[in-house]
Amino acid sequence: MKKNLARTVPTLIRGAMLGLMAVASLSTASRAETGSIRVVFAKVGFIVGAGGGRGVLTFRGHNYPFRVSGMSLGITAGGSMNKFIGQALNMHAPGDIAGTYSAVGAGGALAAGAGGVQLQNDKGVILQLHGVKAGMELSASVGGVTITME
Asked: Is 0.85 topped by the overall pTM?
């Protein structure tokens, strides 16, 4: 019994050390960063909504302008102007923000209101946005958004 315990403890310690080294090497290799984002987006629709706008990514102290276009399907009625701010997570370079995002969000506006959305693209970049709406819109929809760098 003592021989088994004497062999088991060092083996467990070695395994734990190897596991910690593996985790440490993975976290230093990826080093994802966070940027801040501002977007102005106009949307109009009934059942199917469409919109477009512009935004700015601030990443590593520099501003990168981009265009936004999108479409949604679900309960959408009316039109609104949306001003969002938030974060772009899992960024390695400014160009990572470009791509097609899937979105699930909800919000409402009658003259003014609030809304929020979280989007993710195929590069793993996550946009967490919140802000104000002006206009007359009620929405609970699933949609896609495409961001292209200017």
From this structure: no
Specify whether 48 is located in the same domain as 70.
yes
What's the residue count for the chain? 150
Residue entry with tokens 């949609």: 143
Range of the domain at 16: 1-30
Say if CB 65 and CB 59 are below 8 A apart: no
pLDDT interval class at 57 (50, 70, 90): very high
For residue 27, the SS3 value is helix
> 21 with 66, same domain?
no
Question: Could you tell me if 132 and 112 lie in one domain?
Answer: yes
**CA gap 78, 138 in Å, rounded:** 7
